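User: I'm curious whether this sequence folds into something compact or stays loose and floppy. Could you predict its structure so I can see for myself?
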Amino acid sequence: MCERGHRGGGDEGSGEENRRCSGVLEGREASTTTTTTSSSGKKRLYYKFGDIKDGQVCAPVIVRRVLEEEGWREAGEDVAWNLFWKSGRFTVGEYDRARSFDQRLNHFAKSGQICTKDSLVRIMRRNKATHGRVYDFVPETYLLPNEYNKFIKSYGEQRDQDTLWICKPTDLSRGQKIFVMKDIRELVYDCSSVIQRYIHNPLLVGGYKFDLRIYVLVSSMHPLKIHLFQDGLCRFGTVPYSKGNYSDIWAHLTNFSINKNSPTYDWDKDTIGVANKWTLRRLTEYLRSRGVPMEAVMLKIKALVILSLVSLPGIVPKTSSGTCFELFGFDVILSSDFKPWLLEVNTSPALGIDCFEDEDVKEPLIRDLLSAVQFGKLSDRKRERKRPWSRRSGTRVLTGKTSDQNENGEGTFQMNHAGQYEQIFPFNQKTFLLSNQLDCAKDPVPIVKQVIAEIKTWKRETMKEIRNQKV
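Assistant: Here's the prediction. I'll summarize afterward.
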């Protein structure tokens, strides 16, 4: 069994069932040989996995299985791939050699900046400083050791409030070396870390703390197009929550990698049952039955996702984005007042299957992704004109236009859903045009301000519709 390690933006998923190995890959490049056709006469699509350990190709079992069931085949020596999948990052050369008309890679260049704990904090701080309280969905956070003195000042000011803090290493995952503290004397760290004000009043189910794994697909970066998967995972602690037992990791940390070792993991716990996962769909039904306004909660989560990603086109270079897509895992916690808080963003969300809930969510997650990224259209496309090379940078330049745009960057908005993937941005004609303007703007800040204004209007009007439906 081959197990992939993650650093920084990786995920906390387990390794036991996470990966399958097949064959040996010796760094071969995409062939230019024409791909074969299936018995139906349709051009067959081919995949390639890029994670290698001990000379073996490592791949998420669910990804390989869905691809095979959909008629894909693994690319051989003499066949060009259409999908190149990695948990880690691609090299500049791998981006450069990808053909825009029929090849896709599952990460954008530099998108991982939003997925390391320290970089996420910096990006959200910058956005909040520029755009105000609309970005008030990230808990108060300090970077250690550089901001130790700032943390000490805040700690002293809040000491009488019985405030808890959670400390997390920036480059580790799966809950490693995470701890909750109350007294400064408990703060011990041996690597770069973030220390964050702990959400002490989490919404509970049956007395247990939980967080949400929200799956988000960016099918296009230039212009930005975001899809939210309508199901997800809810992960519980395995010991009842109490603010007083903050040293009990099984009560305060919801990571599967930690809770699978809890002595109560297999117990039939009050309300949540055995193990520690529900689907988001089940949680939504449960909370709605108890009066929680889940339509409003999900609206806030959608806004949180859009606001988190709207600055990403300014980070990701256009020269590689035309051949890429990316699946992100947003970790969100709800406080008792139903406010969603962003904890982390993962660039390679765990795709291992450890329980029925994993299978129920992740199988359609991957199957519908193939439709959302429109792989089915790759075989029908005519070869595009070669992208021109920039003499100054030595890289190829993309126009950033979509099929719905004319030469003036104008066009007609279309809402494109695919299976359980709901397009959440752009969400109307105005944001469609703003997305295209954002793609070309030398100074994106004024465009982002207009996007934020549209998000506020959208939230306000949608909330009005929700209230009217209840009357």
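Summary: Residues 19-111 form one domain. Residues 166 and 180 are 4 Å apart (CA to CA).
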